[in-house]
Design a protein that fits this description.
- Helices cover about 30% and strands about 15% of the residues.
- It is of the alpha+beta class and about 270 residues long.
- The longest helix has about 40 residues.
- It starts with a helix and ends with a strand.
């Protein structure tokens, strides 16, 4: 490159001196400044367009909002009142409970040989006809017992039926008892049979009988005998005994089966 041309040449001309300047690298470097300028101009133009669009859109929205508000007509809105809840009717008044009704003691069955006081006997069904079940015996006004006031109730209470069995019982709370000394009574009233004495027969005759509610002896029969007329003599003495104290169950006199040994002993 000549000296005059070198003074006016830029660094690209010096680098590409005696080279193929039509090669892409020279052209790219030569036009780099123009391309950067175009890119910067395009960027600023895009930013300016975005800012301008935002300002115009904001004005348009504000104008639209103002038009909507100017044309709005406010009217009264009717709001229905809440539904009225009707409370359910009150329950019917409870029946007036009778006062000072008599009560009968409620006790648990107890098997014992000891006599039970009359005021501790269990109430029977017939005792509850005009009394309520309670924790003690209380004297009150005579009349109907507390009515059944449950919904659908009949307003009356039927006393429980008598559930006492017809057959004699074997074990009860209070067993029957002879009034007095039983062994002394038997010794005083038994006549030793002549045949049994002659043949030396002796021993124990078991007699079974029923003590009724009134204490009288019924249905006596020999369960185990020894013969020689002793069985018949034992039955005679048992059937001729005075009334016993009846057995009791739940405070009521009941029929009870009793087995009595009658001893025949030669002296």
């Amino acid at each position: 490159m000549e000296i005059n041309a070198l003074k006016n040449a830029d660094y690209l001309d010096i680098i590409f001196d005696n080279r193929n300047k039509s090669y892409g690298g020279y052209q790219l470097r030569k036009s780099y400044g123009q391309r950067v300028g175009k890119a910067v101009a395009i960027l600023y133009g895009a930013l300016a367009a975005i800012i301008l669009y935002g300002l115009l859109h904001k004005q348009d929205v504000q104008a639209t909002t103002e038009r909507i508000l100017d044309g709005t007509i406010l009217t009264d809105v009717y709001v229905a009142p809440p539904p009225v809840v009707v409370p359910p009717p009150p329950p019917p008044p409870r029946a007036v409970m009778p006062h000072a009704r008599p009560t009968r003691l409620l006790t648990d069955p107890v098997v014992t040989d000891e006599p039970i006081p009359d005021d501790r006997h269990m109430a029977h069904a017939s005792d509850l006809t005009h009394a309520n079940v309670g924790r003690g015996n209380v004297i009150g006004e005579e009349g109907d017992i507390t009515p059944d006031i449950r919904p659908g109730g009949s307003n009356t209470i039927t006393p429980p039926a008598d559930t006492r069995p017809d057959k004699p019982l074997t074990y009860v709370e209070q067993m029957p008892a002879f009034s007095g000394d039983l062994q002394a009574y038997l010794a005083a009233h038994i006549n030793y049979p002549h045949a049994a004495r002659e043949f030396g027969i002796g021993g124990r005759v078991i007699v079974s009988f029923v003590v009724n509610e009134d204490g009288k002896i019924t249905d006596a029969h020999v369960v185990r005998g020894i013969g020689g007329g002793c069985d018949e003599e034992a039955l005679r003495v048992v059937n001729s005994m005075p009334p016993w104290k009846p057995g009791r169950q739940n405070g009521r006199a009941v029929k009870v089966i009793f087995n009595l040994p009658v001893v025949f002993e030669l002296q």
